Structures are given as C-alpha cells and as structure tokens.
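Narrative of accomplishments. A recurring question from our advisory board has been how the design workflow behaves on a single, concrete structure rather than in aggregate. To address it, we present the structure tokens for one chain from the evaluation set, followed by the sequence designed for it. No filtering or post-editing was applied between the two.
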C-alpha cells in the first residue's frame, strides 16, 4: 500500500474507493491506481480527498515517489540492456 495514511483515513470513515472516484470524477480503477502509487495524486485531488474525508491535508498527505518491486540494480541492468538494443538498432539502420 503506497498511501497508508490516506488508506487508513478512508477506511476509518467507511468511504470506498468508488465514493472518492465519484467525487473526483474519475473511475474507481483510476482512483485505485492513485491510492497504490501507480499514478501521482494531484494537488487538487489531495485537497478534494481531504475535504471529502473531513481531515486536514497534513493528516493524509504523503509525497509521491516512484515505487517499484524491482531494486535499483535490476533497473540499472534493464537500462543497460535497452541501451545495447538501441545501439544495435542504430547500427542496423546505418
């Protein structure tokens, strides 16, 4: 769970993801992606959510950071592999 404070505040108030999605005028799937950190929550959305939940922004806000199940070394290895593929493609085009 990416936004633990948001999740706990929402659950404590018995508000569903669908409820927040309707309020934000987005799909439940889109809201879910925000709550789990796959999509960044905008400032306007944070403000709307805090208003709907009846809490201060500080009570639920957590900064967005890119999360991944892969570690840094794995990502670096993938980047190097992609760079090699790009070099090969450029060489083939020449």
């Amino acid at each position: 769970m990416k936004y633990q404070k948001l999740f706990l505040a929402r659950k404590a108030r018995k508000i569903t993801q669908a409820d927040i999605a309707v309020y934000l005028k987005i799909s439940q799937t889109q809201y879910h992606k925000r709550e789990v950190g796959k999509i960044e929550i905008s400032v306007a959305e944070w403000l709307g959510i805090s208003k709907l939940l009846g809490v201060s922004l500080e009570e639920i806000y957590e900064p967005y950071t890119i999360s991944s199940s892969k570690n840094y070394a794995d990502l670096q290895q993938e980047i190097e592999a992609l760079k090699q593929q790009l070099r090969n493609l450029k060489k083939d085009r020449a």
